[in-house]
Amino acid sequence: MPVNDRERDLKTLRNLIGEAQLVISTTDLPQGRTSRAVKLLDSALALTDDLLALPSSAVSLGQRGGQKTAKRGSEYFRQIAAKRKTKAGGRPRREK
Length: 96
Description:
The protein is 73% helix and 0% strand.
């Protein structure tokens, strides 16, 4: 079962490429174009399989997110929340 929209879209793309490969392989095109088209579709299937095997970018970003949050500390987030309550908005200015 697909986990997210990206994975679902990639699986759909893979199915479409596979179906196109099946259609092309059963027809005979002039000048040897059938074999070239089948090779290209094989490459496209391999690429989609590789993309499906990669973790999503959110997973890789999430691994760093906790480290950055811990580095800022709780006081930083208290200041942000206080500004939100007073409708001052924005991030605090960087101290040089």
